Amino acid sequence: MKVRMILASLAAFSLAVAAGALTKNAGTAQCAKPNPAHMVEVGDEPNHSMGVSKSMCTWTKPLEIAGLKSKDGWSVASDDTKGSKSSSHGVHVSNMDNGDKIYVRFQGTGMMKDGAMQSDSGTWSYTSGTGKLKGIKGKGTYNGKPSADGGMTYEVKGDYTLPK
């Protein structure tokens, strides 16, 4: 009887873990040069500016979530730049191939040279989704490198769960 209870408990625990299991995903987004981009010199020290910008993005290697693929979207960021170092935080919105959306909050740091971003990396987390993606949870990392058009190419990795 005791062995049966232990086995039943282990089976129930395994099902609970599987129901809340994280699904890994990865993708590549090509984001255009920010437009608009508004930077304001702070004046407290040389080369210190703060600003806000918006970049349009296309998923060249889509994120796959619950059978849906990310298509395009945009990021809006607040930036604080001192010399060659930049920190940012913001929100990214992606449109999925069926019309659903995912919403992501991100924060990261970057390196600048001659006013152009040379690298950008950080962390992100899902804040919500629509339709089939309502209630999405998860997080991950991103790494960006400059592209020829003045934008950035981002490698995005993470995981997610969806409510049952």
SSE topology:
Blueprint: H1 2-19, E1 23-31, E2 37-41, E3 48-61, E4 64-65, E5 68-82, E6 85-96, E7 101-113, E8 116-129, E9 137-146, E10 152-161
Antiparallel strand pairs: 1-3, 1-10, 2-3, 3-5, 4-5, 5-6, 6-7, 7-8, 8-9, 9-10
Structure characterization notes:
By secondary structure, the protein is mainly beta. It has one domain: AOC barrel-like (Beta Barrel). It contains 1 helix and 10 strands, in the order H-E-E-E-E-E-E-E-E-E-E. It has an 8-stranded antiparallel β-barrel with strand order 1-3-5-6-7-8-9-10. The longest helix is centred in the N-terminal third of the chain and has 18 residues. The chain starts with a helix and ends with a strand. The N terminus is likely disordered.
Which CATH class?
Mainly Beta
Strand order of the largest sheet: 1-3-5-6-7-8-9-10
**CATH topology category name:** AOC barrel-like
Order of helices and strands: HEEEEEEEEEE
Fraction of residues in β-strands: over 45%
CATH architecture: Beta Barrel
User: Helical stretch count?
Assistant: 1
Sum up the overall morphology in one term: elongated
Keywords:
mainly beta, single chain, 11% helix, elongated, 164 residues, AOC barrel-like
